[in-house]
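Shipment paperwork, digital attachment
Item: protein structure file
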Amino acid sequence: MTQVHSSWISIALFTVLLAGRSCSELRPTGRLDKQTEGELFHAVFPVECKLNSLLWQSVGLWYSFRKARMPGSFTRLLACKEENRQDFKDAGAMDICPTHVTPSYTHFNRHDAYGPYNMAGTVLHWVTHVQPKEKYVLILDSDMVIIRPLVPSDLGVLPGHAVAAHYGYLKGVNDDLAQRHIPEISPRNDSLAGPFGRRSDQAGGTPA
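Attachment content:
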């Protein structure tokens, strides 16, 4: 009970902080105003519709996006089952930030309940149903915060060339797990994301 109470206090504090600043105060300034919409990021983050830490993390990320005066757009990709959506709305959690609601992909494979399926599933649903005005998409996690504006040109992002953070601690995933658990998916040559023959479950394309 204490944990839930603390979470809602955090949400309330973030909401007060957001309400205390006008849109004009949080608008990008300086050279960022000269960027065209097509040269900016549309920031998205997949998350499940649960009334727990994922909710206040979402509020915190949205607040940091505005606090940092990040240019471009922002959308929460909310993976939510039909039967759970009304409760989420009634709790006031549906409209805390710009949101695109998608089905839940946790049970996409009926033999394997796996929450991270929502990462790919929600992004695919969004790009299938929405036409973002920005040329580039920045995919975040709900527990991240933005401390300064991010612009594609500053990160070396170009059409057809993706950029990602280095996750060195995940080194060592080049094993037989994929062959054992998803034998129906054959190895593929993804020369832009990792070594030849890497499989879809290799984290960050990091070779072993």
